[in-house]
Amino acid sequence: MQTMPILTIQASEKLLCALEDFLEKSEANFALILDRGGIILSQHGTLPATADTNVVSALSAGCFAATRELAMRIGETDCSALYQQGANNHIFISAIDTEHILVTVFGKQTTVGLVKFYSARATKRIAAVLQDMQSGPGIGSLFSKEDLNGTEDLFVR
Amino acid sequence: MSIINYANKEIQFKIVYYGPALCGKTTNLAYIHSQVDERNKGELVSLATAADRTLFFDFLPLNAVVIKGFKTKFQLYTVPGQVIYNATRQLVLRSVDGLVFVADSQWDKMEENLESFQNLQDNLVRQGMSLDSIPYVLQYNKRDMPNLAPVHYLEYLLNNRGRRVNSFVGVATTGQGVFATLNAISRLLLQRFAREAEESVLKHQRPAATTALTGVTTSPAPATLRR
Predict the structure, then answer these.
(1) pLDDT band for position B226 (cuts 50, 70, 90)
(2) What are the pLDDT digits (tens) for B166-199?
(3) Nearest Cβ partner of B36 from A41, A144, A155?
(4) ipTM above 0.85, yes or no
(5) Closest residue by Cα to residue B42 from B66, B17, B10, B74
(6) CB–CB of B201 and A137 under 8 A?
(7) Taking CB atoms and an 8 Å limit, are B194 and A58 in contact across chains?
(8) Would you say A83 and A90 are in contact if contact means Cβ atoms under 8 Å apart?
(9) Distance of CA B200 to CAs A17, A21, A149, B7, B11, Å?
(10) Of these four, A99, B74, B151, B209, which has the most CB atoms within 10 Å of its CB?
């Protein structure tokens, strides 16, 4: 297991700013930054009421990973973006770096071209923040072994 | 890989249930989902075939204890057990923090158990990991079936590495062993987390890190969320 990265308040605010700016310019409804294993780093905007963000993140990570694998089977070296066209809501997923993806949900008020254009800018900005996060401080300043006492049975029947 | 998120005050872990086809991985998650309080669980999502066989993965998000103001969140995944879905298993293993290997206790499933366990090790190596570097536990499931292999034989087959791990007998359909298994792997992850914290102290001096992480509460006495 690699060293656990920490998303600081400052980094989190930078990510949120990048997402706010992206949603405002692209006129999309919702944006989500994930690692490629499905862990949520940041989100902004609104999803349809029936959607659970955890589920959207797990499925998006799986979907992008499967599409990337499929692309590589036909001779591509990577997959940079994925577009799902719906009747009312659409999803655009783009790679931020080798470890993270940006998921965007948008409706009829905008176009995939606009979303794609501004997501390219947003991913560069987000990648810079995440790069800093990778080399951030360790977790020793936050927790000690004693803090985990009393957590023997996290789940009980 | 797990992450500490200051904005949401969350620590997230990913646990994958691995094992041969029809060993009970999905049944484990379904039982957990049926027993955990609504406040501490999300939706159980199954990407399955029409015959209810896992096609891609099952997914269940759970909330657990609060440590120094940070919620711990566990994302449980299963892999498809059928041999042909190996590419899919590799995708689900990405960024995994801990593993549960579910074995089928029936005599005639021993070969499949071994193949799946070897397949797990091969897939971990492809991701730069190994069973030596990742927390895992074993569950010997289907102990209610006829024609069972003895537990000591399963131990001989699957728990014979240099590092012996915790193993549990289970009947996932009734819930036997399901929470013991989940608690064991969750505890291992938190212990690893604590160990990493201690190692981190040696690498980074406290004042510098504390300055960078403003707004952190340091109150003790974590509250425990249970169903």
Answers:
(1) very low
(2) 999 999 999 999 999 999 999 999 888 877 777 7
(3) A155
(4) no
(5) B74
(6) no
(7) no
(8) yes
(9) 30, 35, 19, 21, 16
(10) B74
